[in-house]
Here is the input.
Amino acid sequence: MVWIFGAVCMIIALVHIAVGPSSIPGSIPVNATLDSEDRFYASLFLGFGAALIWCSRALAKRGGVFFALLAVFFIGGLARFVSYLQVGLPHPLFQFLWAVEIILPIILYAWHRHAYSVANKA
Here is the structure.
C-alpha cells in the first residue's frame, strides 16, 4: 500500500514536470515564474514519492522516516486549509485531495502503529 502511495506521488510529479501547470484541473495560463515554481515543487514531490517507496521496503526499520513523510503530507493538507481561508475553495478535485491529505496520513499512521505493535508482540 505504501509503495502504491509513493508511485502515485511520483506519477503526479512527473506529469507536473513534463506538462507544467496546465496539468492542473481548473487552472489558468500562468507566467514563467509560476510555471517554474510548479515544476520545481513537483520535483520535491517526486522525491517524496521515492522516499515513500524506499520506506515501504523496510517499514519496521524506517518507521521514523515514514512518520515524518506522513507529517509532511498532512501539513500539505493544512496548507490547503490556509489557502481556503485566504482565497476560497479550489477545484473539486483539489477539495478531494485536501481530504485525502488530512485523512490518509492518520489512517496510515494508525495502521503502521497497529501492524508493527502486533508484530512485535508475536
